Amino acid sequence: MGLEKLAEKIAMLEFHQKLLLQMISGNKDKFNKLIIQKAVTEKELTVINELCEKLSIELEEQKAEGFVHFHPLFEEFTDAIRHKLQPKETVHAMFDQGIFMPLMTEFKKYV
Q1: Among positive and negative, which fits the CA dihedral 45, 47, 50, 55?
Q2: What's the total number of domains in the chain?
Q3: In this structure, is residue 17 part of a structural domain?
Q4: Domain of residue 69, residue span
Q5: Which of 82, 83, 95, 99 fits 104 for a cystine, CB–CB 3.0-4.6 Å?
Q6: d(Cα 98, Cα 16) in Å, to the nearest integer?
């Protein structure tokens, strides 16, 4: 298969992917949909998940120490995702999908 044919197939797959995303309804998988729309790679998603796990632990530790403001954690999150994802959209999508709920509940205060 030539490069031109391969490029046509990739373009068709991208088009079909967009159509499939439009077919998905509801908020159930909002974050997954966002990941597909923004072309986030599996490696990038793994980094985001690992960061959220780390920040979730830090959030719980800080809460135990009596902290009530968690803006530095939010800033670390936004700095890490900003190259591909918008913080507000990402936080709301993760919250709606039920991912890292305590962390996203706090982050919603900053978006």
Answers
A1: negative
A2: 1
A3: no
A4: 26-110
A5: 95
A6: 27
